[in-house]
Amino acid sequence: MIRIFYGDDRVKANAKIKSLLGENYEVVDGENLDLTDLPNIFLGASLLSDTRNILIRDLAQNKPAFEQLTNYLNTPHNIILLESKLDTRTTTFKELKDKVEVAKFELPEDPNFRLVFDIYKTAKRDGKKAISQLSKIKQDEDPIMFFGLLASQAIKDFSFNQGTKEKRVLKELAKLDLDMKSAKVEPWLLIESFLLRLSSLS
Cα-atom radius of gyration of the chain, to the nearest Å? Predict the structure, then answer.
């Protein structure tokens, strides 16, 4: 049996894989397979058992091999394809979706996701207001993850405009990163201090 798993929630996907394949299964790198490897993987028996448990990673990135999947629907093995990227618009996927088990594992959307980006934009003009916004979501957020989002926004700004202010912001974020790693001060206090300073950087 062939199953196709995809999506960004790898924790749930891996838990499902273990529940179906057990703790001991073969792992194959699908991106590097040759077409000549497929018969052995999908049809070849092992010395100990006629049925094998196999996880194939990212076979969809290997277009010639992925297109051959319809030839191996009668595999006697338990095979799961774990895809980090899967184009569900391809002809091959459309042919497969009704013939194999397909499951998408998605991370739940963070209700604070948009607000995190709004806080950075607000801080560029009004640090106190940004801290007020932060207080509403702080208890649900990880300061390290929040710092990462701040950094991604600053890098995005710098890619659009490589001005003096954008460079100063990146330098301040680098300092903030070091200060947070030293763990001498509570991380949220360091982030709030940065948000207060952001509008005055030039």
Answer: 24
